[in-house]
Specification:
With about 325 residues, this protein is α/β, with parallel strands linked by helices. The chain is built from 11 helices and 12 strands. It binds beta-D-fucofuranose.
Amino acid sequence: MRKLWIFALLVSLVAAFAGMAAAAEKTLVVGFSQIGAESGWRTAETDSVISAAKELGIDLKFSDAQQKQENQIKAIRSFIAQGVDGILLAPVVETGWEPVLTEAQNAKIPVILLDRGITVNDDSLYVCKITSDFVFEGREAAKWVAKELGGKGSVVQLQGTPGASAATERQKGFEEEIAKTPDIKILESQTGDFTMELGKQVMEAFLKKYGKDINAVYAHNDDMGLGAIQAIKEAGLKPGEDIKIITVDATKAAFEAMVAGEMNAVVECNPLLGPLAYETLKKAIAGEKIDKWIVQKDELFTKDQAASVIGSRKY
Ligand code: GYE
């Protein structure tokens, strides 16, 4: 009788420990609603989020929205239905998120915004945003343009996706700062949707309209700047010399263009957000207090620095 009792106790102890260990190691299930694959930057971000999940043993449900907010909303609803532990959302545009984020909140699933911000009437609908300071990036670009053109000249602006915080704020920072140099004029601004193809097309149209009157191009991302380089070459002009080019992101491709002398400067924007995203999500799940905005620090690089810096770039 006594032996049986001891045996039962041992069995229940073993079961309890096993249960505790399983709970401690419970695989975190995370849904990531990604915007698409429009730029080199975004591919680097996707790689970072996927590879960090692998390293940390996280079960990642990945969904590519192909630039459509409605696809992101569908993906979030499906993550909620699957009962994920947390959601990472790279929001394509700033507005229209209240209904779906309320659903996530009601399901007690924390949502972290990655790389772009949103505007909602209730900030408690998301834990925090992990992004760069896009207004700062725009200001840095404007300061560089003003200096490079010696305080006088004409610029065209290639904007990112309409309604995206990365586009709206990069424009705001740039325009506010460039206004301090009244002899620099923005000839025209148009969206190239953060893609190389559209960046090239828009630049072709600008070149037809303004030709050599364009002294500089400010592109909201590298891909559009790289597209502009092609358009400038095809128009028989020298990118980097006849027309100066500054972009945002600082991917390897932009550094290569700087080394080749075809791009003049880049403002960095860090896409390697995977590890930080999971660390923050784990804290949120544990109920820790988290800053509403976790800002990534960025730097400006010029073409003179490119050759010595390119080897140490991680994306
Ligand atoms: O700069 C651009 C892109 O949201 C910060 O999106 C991101 C931007 C990035 O496609 O290349």
